[in-house]
Inverse folding.
């Protein structure tokens, strides 16, 4: 998870720098969109990993007999 977060941070930083380069006229729109796509893909990977961790935690809680209690009547 930590590795994915570092990748996301790096990709976001790269996208920010590329945006500055594009605004300065030294990078193309294709370059900008490509780095933005990479940043979004990295963000999606982090979100997917967090969702998987939550799912695994719920499965563990259920297997241990823990979880939500309902009021019976």
């Amino acid at each position: 998870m930590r590795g994915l977060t570092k990748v996301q941070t790096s990709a976001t930083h790269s996208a920010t720098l590329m945006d500055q380069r594009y605004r300065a006229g030294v990078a193309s729109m294709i370059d900008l969109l490509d780095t933005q796509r990479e940043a979004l893909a990295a963000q999606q990977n982090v979100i997917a990993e967090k969702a998987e961790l939550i799912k695994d935690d719920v499965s563990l809680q259920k297997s241990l007999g823990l979880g939500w209690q309902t009021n019976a009547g």
Observations:
- The chain has a mean pLDDT of 92.
